[in-house]
Amino acid sequence: xxxxxxxxxxxxxxxxxxxxxxxxxxxxxxxxxxxxxxxxxxxxxxxxxxxxxxxxxxxxxxxxxxxxxxxxxxxxxxxxxxxxxxxxxxxxxxxxxxxxxxxxxxxxxxxxxxxxxxxxxxxxxxxxxxxxxxxxxxxxxxxxxxxxxxxxxxxxxxxxxxxxxxxxxxxxx
Length: 173
Fold this sequence. Notes:
By secondary structure, this protein is mainly α. It has 4 helices and no strands. Helix 3 (about 75-110) runs antiparallel to helix 4 (about 115-170). The longest helix is centred in the last third of the chain and has 57 residues, at about 115-170. The chain is rod-shaped and about 135 Å long. The protein starts with 12 loop residues before the first helix and ends with a helix. The relative contact order is 0.06. The model has no long low-confidence stretch (mean pLDDT about 80).
């Protein structure tokens, strides 16, 4: 079917030129006032680059924390396992010392008739062993306090990183 043409208006060429100029002026204003067309995409790309840089920085920090915890030669878990082995050995030594003290006491009861000098030497050995047990117990308590502090510090760091990440996500929205 042939298209029907719209009836022509009787607008003069001069007035249509003015309407065209006004229309072009309106289009020009809209283009320059549009944030998307007037540098908005550049700003958006710049912000995305900033977020990406922040994310890369955050990733590198998390990687460093991961390395500090899991490093097989110097990591926290390695040190804890070494401490556990060392503590087990020390506890075994302490148990052996306690056993030897018990045996010594039995022997001492049998040989009470020995002179005073032998008695003084044995008392000094006993005091030395008790000091080492006390020292070991103090180091155990100190170490556990340190581990607890370290875990709290790591937890605080993790929470801080989470809230910074959350804050960066909130700025995106």
